[in-house]
Write a structure and sequence with these properties.
Helix content of chain A: 55-70%
Distance between the termini of chain B: 51 Å
CATH architecture of chain B: 3-Layer(aba) Sandwich
Order of helices and strands of chain B: HHEHEHEEH
Largest interface: A-B, 21 and 24 residues
Shape of chain B: elongated
Low-confidence stretches of chain A: none
Strand order of the largest sheet of chain A: 1-2
Mean pLDDT of chain B: 84
CATH class of chain B: Alpha Beta
Order of helices and strands of chain A: EHHHEHHH
Number of helices of chain A: 6
Structural class of chain A: mainly alpha
Shape of chain A: globular
Strand content of chain A: under 5%
Distance between the termini of chain A: 24 Å
Helix content of chain B: 40-55%
Largest sheet of chain B: 4 strands, mixed
Number of strands of chain B: 4
Oligomer: heterodimer
CATH superfamily of chain B: Glutaredoxin
Largest sheet of chain A: 2 strands, antiparallel
Number of domains of chain B: 1
Mean pLDDT of chain A: 91
Amino acid sequence: MTSQTLQKVDHSALKTNQIIIITLNILAFILDQWWLAAFVALVMGIGSALKVPGFGFVYKSILKPQGWMKPDVLEDNPEPHRFAQSLGFLFMAGGSVALYLGSSALGWSLVWLVAALAALNAFGGFCVGCAVYYWLVRFNLPGFTKQPPAGTFPGMKPKASANV
Amino acid sequence: MSTEILLRLGYALGIVVLGLFAYWLIHQHLLVRARNNVFRLFKQWPNKLVIVYFTTPDCAPCKTIQRPALNKLSGLMGDKLEVVEIDATQRPDLARQWGVMSVPTTFLLDVHGEARYVNNGVARVEKLMEQLQTL
């Protein structure tokens, strides 16, 4: 845990993103609609490309202005969260393709996996994709440079609030 | 069509319930782990409520929120409560044994030395007091 510059990360935007992903994935399963899973994958992909939470716009344009969700700004690294979303996008894209090709078991397994990991993050405060990111840092891979915030287990939600 | 949707809804509910059960199991596992580590502590403070508080020197919310909350609680409870502070950087063995993954983490033990609550992250006075009142 070396000293490094952390940034302000609004975890409410991340949580909104995760809850919408969970909801849409479960809906896609119940209604047996592969295109809904593909839509989630698309939004996550766009979010990864733009370096923002895919469904974060719902928080930014509706939930936050209406006061339905309060900002939860913490000193954190945004990179592991982006990596986690990119990983989720890959799983969702793979799942959607599998469903389109008629491989229901594989497709829905991947969709449920993403929903489960998003739930673990949203309700348990543990980001598996972030933990993978911090694990990859050990191998000195290019682009993987950030250390977990001090006193925080890799992947766990940091506790230090940022002054906003 | 609607039968199939109901069936899939049932599957979805089943999976969600399984997930919640797994989460509950993990939480219980942490408490059981804590119970297995309290006996030495408890011998020192029989018939006292104990809060085991894990912190680190560079943990900002520990200094600004958690410690003042525990100090206030100690003042309110007097001799009935013992707060055991453990620096996780000095005692990583204890942090590992107790399953501590982030700081601050507080474990609340009843007068029999049973770990009854675990708070991962900041626990304010009101919450701790509420938990202590049920012990």
